[in-house]
Amino acid sequence: MTISNSSNKNNDIIDNTISTLSIVDVKETPRLNYNNNVLLNRRPKNNDAIDATSNDIMKKQLTILDTQSTKPSSLVNFNQVQQNTNVKIPIAPSQPLSYLPKTELSMLPGNSYPCRQINPIGIQPINHQPLFYNPSHVWKNENDDQQRFDIIGGLPCEIIDLIIQKLNIKDKFKTLDVSNVWRHKISACSNVGWSKLELRECDVDKSKLGMILQQIGFHVTSLGVCYFQEPGYYDTVFDEMSNHPLEKLEEFIVECSDFQNIPRFINTISHVAKTLKVLEIKAPWVGNDRYAIPLKTILTICPCLKTLRYRNFAITLGCHPTEEEQHIIPSNMTSCLTTLDIEIKYITTVYLEQLLAVSPHLTHLNLILMEWEADIVDRIHHQCKNLQQFCFNLTPYNESYDKDSVLSTGGSGIRDVSIKMTYPNQFVSFLTNHSTTIRTLDLSFSMDDDFEDQIIELQDEWRMLRDVCHLSELRSFTVTMNNILCEILVIPLLQKAPHIHTLRFCDTLLPMTQTLQMTPELRMTLVHLQHLKKLAFSGNLSNHQEIQQLFRMLANKTRKDSTLEEIEFSCILNGELRMNGVLELLGDIPSLSSILLSNINYFPVQEMIRLCEKLHHHPSIRSIRLCRIDCIDDTMLDRLAAIKGLERLTLEYMSNITRYGLNTAFKGSLVKIITKKCKHI
Question: Would you say which domain of life the source belongs to (predicted)?
Fold first, then answer.
C-alpha cells in the first residue's frame, strides 16, 4: 500500500483500493494503520470527519448529511463539479455511514468537522456547518427509522453496498424492511455485498422475509438459515427458494431445532441443485428416524454436490430398508462427493458401504457415531481408495463395542487420521494395515479414575502402538495422557518421529485428581525436536520446576537453532503457572511469533508485566490472543499495545477493559484489535 501527501497537509491519500476496513468506536483522534493492503482504523471521534473523493462518486448525486437533524441539506449535481472539488460527508461514528466506499479515502484529524466549500459551476458556495453528533440521540419511532434509512438509501450504490457488508444481520433486516428507497437501491448493488447471507434468529415477519429473498436472491452464493424461533419461517424460506430459485447458490446451511418437513426441504433442494456444491444440515437431537434426510435423494438430485455434512444424533440410517425405501442407494449411481461428514446416532455397515460405493472421489470422511458395528472401519478402508483424511470419533461410553475385536484394514491412501478410541488394540490394528504415511494423529480420549489401572493392564498393547512403522513421519500429534502413558507411549513415539512440528498435550479430559508432570525425560525429548513449531498445553499441570526448565532450555537456543513459533496455555485450572516465572520465559524464546493464554486461574499480574517488558523489543512476536484473563485491564492493555512488532491482539471474554483502553491501544506496529464478548465494549 502506498501513501502520498495531498495538497492539504492534514490528509493522507490512499492511492489503491481498500480490501478491508475495520472500525472500532473510540473517543480520541483516529489513526490509520496500514499492513498488507488492509486498512484497519478506529471509528472517528464524534466531531471528526472523513472525505470521500472519487471520480466515480463525483459523477453521481450525493446527499450531504447533517447527522444530528438527519435531513439532507443540499443536493449536488456532480456532472457540473470541477475535478478539484472536495465533497464533505459528516459521519456519525455509531451509524452505518461510518463505513465508507472502497475508493480513495483521506482522514482529517482534528477536534471538529472541517468546513469545506463545495463550489460547482453555476452554484453558489454552500456555507454548511455540520453539527456535532449527539451519541445520546435515540430513534424513537418507526418514522424516525424511515427517515434515517431513506436518507442513507439516497447515497450512491458504492456506499450502500459497503454499508450492507458491514451491518450485522438484524440491521440488514431492519434496513430493508423500513425503507422503500433501500428496496429499490438494493437491486443495483454489486454481487459482493450479498454474496453471503446468514439469516439467524430473526424476528421479521414472514412476508418481509420473502421480500428480502426476492430482492437479493440473484446475488447470493452462500445462504445460511439458522435457528428460527418458529418453524413457519423455514417454510417461508423454502417456499421462496422454490418459487424464486437462487440461481447462483453454491452453499446452503440449515440449522434448526425443529426440522420435520422433509418433503418441503427436498423440493427446495431440487430447485437449487444444479449449482449447489456444499450442503450442511444440523438438527441435533430432533425427531426420530422418520425425520431422517434421505441421503440417496440428495445425491441423486445434486449432481455437483462436493461437500455433505449431516448432524442429527436422534436418527439412524439404514435400519429399516423395507420401510424407508427412499434411503436405499442404487449401485449404478455416482456422485461427485469429496467430503462427507456424518454425525448421527447409528449407521449400518451396509448403508455406509452403499454410500461409499457411489462416492469414488471421496477424500475426506468424518464419522461421529454413538453406536457402531465392530467391522465398520474395515469396510471403510476396503472401499475408500482415495481417502486422505479420516476422523472416526468413537465415544468411549458405547456399550455395544466389542473391545476384543481386531479391525483389519485395507490398503487405502489415508494421510491424515484423527481417531478417538479407548483400547490400544483398536489403534494398532487400524494403523498397521494401510500403506500410506500418516501425518496427523489425534489420540485424545476421556479418562475416568479407573483408567490408570486399565493402562497398566494393557501396557503391552500400548507399547505395540509406538512400534507402528507408519508413525515415524508424524507431523502433528495430539494426545491425552497421564504420566504412565507418557512413559510407555508418548516419549518413545516422539523419539521415533523427529519431524513433528505440532504437539498438543490435551489433558482437559483427565480427572481433576490427575495432572501432567513434565518429567526430565519428556523435557529433553521436547528440546531435541528440531522441527517443533507449535507447542500447546491444555489441562492441569504440575511440577512447575520442570516446565520452567523446559522453557529456559528453549529460550537458550540461538535464533538460528530456535524453531518454536507458537505457544498455547489453556484451561490451566490448578494455578501452577503462577510460580517461578514460567510465563516470563516465553519472552526469551527468539523465534516465538504467537502466544495464546486462555482460561488460566490465578494468573500472575507481575509476571504478565515482565512478559510485556521482555516482548517489547522481541524480534519475532506478531500475535497475542488472551481469553478470560482477569488481570488484563486498560493499563495492561496499554503495555501490550506498546510491544514493538505486535500486529494482532485478540481479547475474548474480558471484563476489565473499556473503550478508553481501546482508544489508547493503537500504537507502534499494532494494526488490528479483535474483541469478542468483552463486558464493557
Answer: Eukaryota
With a cut of 50, say whether residue 68 has pLDDT above it.
no
Q: pTM higher than 0.85, yes or no?
A: no
* Helix, strand, or coil (residue 556): coil
Confidence of residue 28 (pLDDT cuts 50, 70, 90): very low
- SS3 for 489? helix
The beta strands (E) that lie in 509-593 are given as: 516-517, 534-538, 541-542, 566-572
Per-domain residue ranges of the chain: 3-137
What is the rounded distance in angstroms from the CA atom of residue 490 to the CA atom of residue 480? 10
150 contacts: CB under 8 Å, gap ≥ 6? 179, 180, 181, 182
The answer to whether residue 628 scores a pLDDT higher than 80 is yes
Chain CA centroid to CA 122, Å: 53
Rg of the chain over CA atoms, in angstroms?
Answer: 30
Contacts of 657 (CB under 8 A, 6+ apart): 632, 633, 634, 637, 651, 675, 678, 680, 681
Instruction: Note the residue count of the chain.
Output: 681
Instruction: Say whether pLDDT at 611 is over 80.
Output: yes
Min mean pLDDT across 237-241, 506-510, 520-524 is at: 506-510
CB 199 within 8 A of CB 224: yes
The full 3-state SS of 287-350, as one line of letters, equals: CCHHHCCCHHHHHHHCCCCCEEEEEEEEEEECCCCCCCHHHCCCCCCCCCCCEEEEEEEEECHH
How far, in Å, CA of 387 to CA of 212, rounded? 41
> At 567, is the secondary structure helix, strand, or coil?
strand
- 7, containing H or E segment: none
Cα–Cα distance for residue pair 373/381, rounded to 1 Å: 14
Q: Are 496 and 528 in contact (CB under 8 A)?
A: no
Q: What is the Cβ-side half-sphere exposure of residue 669, based on CA atoms within 13 angstroms?
A: 16
CA quadruple 518, 521, 523, 525: dihedral sign: negative
677: left (phi over 0), alpha (psi -120 to 50) or beta: left
What pLDDT was estimated at residue 31? 32
Strand partners, 566: 534, 594
pLDDT at position 154: 60
Whole-angstrom Cα distance, residue 195 to residue 416? 32
Q: Count CB atoms within 10 A of the CB of residue 336.
A: 16
Q: Which residue's C-alpha cell is 481501546?
A: 662
**Cα separation of 388 and 417, whole Å?**
8
Element (H, E) at 27: none
Angle, alpha carbons 648-652-658 (nearest 5°): 90
Strand partners, 344: 312, 369
Which ranges constitute the DSSP H helices of 35-179?
A: 55-58, 142-153, 157-166, 169-178
In 349-434, DSSP assigns E strands to: 364-369, 389-393, 416-420
